[in-house]
């Protein structure tokens, strides 16, 4: 919507916020996968 209204500063701010959120989620997911990789598998019969 900001792009359609040619509001460049607002569009840049929204894109920057989006990148921060996506980057943070990527780090959280990578950390979770790394942590799960350190767990031993469950003992099965």
Automatic annotation (TrEMBL):
Membrane spanning stretches: 19-37
Superkingdom assignment: Bacteria
Record keywords, A-Z: Membrane, Transmembrane, Transmembrane helix
Protein's UniProt name: Copper resistance protein D domain-containing protein
Lineage of the species this protein comes from: Bacteria, Pseudomonadati, Pseudomonadota, Alphaproteobacteria, Sphingomonadales
